[in-house]
Design a protein that fits this description.
This protein is mainly alpha-helical. 85% of the residues lie in helices and 0% in strands. The protein starts with a helix and ends with a helix. InterPro entries: Eex_IncN-like.
Length: 81
């Protein structure tokens, strides 16, 4: 019985901790490349279903795609000039 209670408490604590994690905005990810790398590793470890439900993984993907688009726009602007 004690094992069941301890297991339930550990699982509950893990869920509460994960639920209280700070959500970073797209702008925060774009400003801090170290943060992007850190969350990139975390999101890679998550399965696809957790990635789609994680606000940080969603914002990370948006920030990364904005970086790519910004880079392409700069390159295209150089070619036009």
């Amino acid at each position: 019985m004690n094992k069941i209670i301890i297991t339930a408490l550990l699982l509950g604590t893990g869920l509460v901790t994960a639920g209280c994690e700070k959500n970073y905005s797209v702008a925060e990810f774009k400003k801090d490349k170290k943060l992007m790398q850190e969350w990139g590793k975390k999101c890679e470890k998550m399965g696809p279903s957790l990635q789609s439900s994680s606000r940080n993984c969603q914002n990370l993907l948006k920030a990364a795609s904005e970086f790519v688009l910004d880079g392409l726009n700069k390159e295209l602007g150089k070619e036009i000039d």
